[in-house]
Design goal:
heterodimer; A: alpha/beta; five-stranded mixed sheet; 8 helices; 45% helix; B: mainly alpha; 0% strand; globular
Chain lengths: 180, 137
Amino acid sequence: MRRSELEHAIRAATEIVRAPAVYIFGSQSILGSFTEDELPAEATMSDEVDIAPLDDDDAGTLATELDAAIGEMSPFHETHGFYVQGVSKTTAVLPVGWTERLVNVSNANTSGRTGLCLEPHDLCVAKLIAGREKDHRFVGALLERGLLDARVIAERLQTLRDDDIRRDRAISWIRSTLQS
Amino acid sequence: MARETAVETGSVLGQILRLLEAAARRPALERREDRVSYELHRLVAEKIAENPAPVLAKAAENLRRRLLRPRGSQAAGWIQEWEQLMAGDPTELVEAMLRTDERSIDLRQMTPFAGVLSQEERLVAIRNAGRTEHAAQ
């Protein structure tokens, strides 16, 4: 995905949920901090961007509206080659203080509305907690490019309290990268 | 061939229909977004069972367009995997579309099937994904 496509997704999503801003979760939130030219290919290969309404009911009504309008296999997807996946703002496990570090994407391309993107180190915390092979590849590629500080990721992982097993596994992984 | 006969004779169509019957029992997927993707692909698989040619033609067109976008080797790998599945045994294609392991979830995220389902069909899939019996316990 390209930065311009992220901006397009923000413009469309905020219009659909009738809000001035949305959260951008998932790997493509990295485009809030870096352009596609600055990023390794592994970081921008996804065709989908996870977007969470700031306020949604327990049934995820607004997230469902995003899926319906501009989601997977929609006419939007067919036309533009990428799509929005409606998610809950609780979908990712994030470190303490993440809301204070959000990166705003707002310009003419977003019609002045805002995509609140995860700060890259916070994004990597979420990825390492998920702990899938592709998540490790994603974080590893960013570290290898020198875009992130592994020590900051490790520090933020330490702030997690609700999932000790996955947190400790993630810390082991990031420490192994520091040693290699 | 009647669907019942197809299932009995073990034809390709029969094998696909058995996969669809299993898929109708809705495997447990924890994340709603994974369930949405699964349900969409289940409906696409039903279309493949009915008449694969237009579905595969549309998917091939989407993959061709996707190859024009600059991508790394990993994305090219996913595209190649879809191409190989589409060129091979339809049963294996449907099986890959409906598995619930991590790799299959990732494969579906790079779906080539945009434009195959009508909006009405998509909404049915999205609604089915929200059904509580689908969620992991």
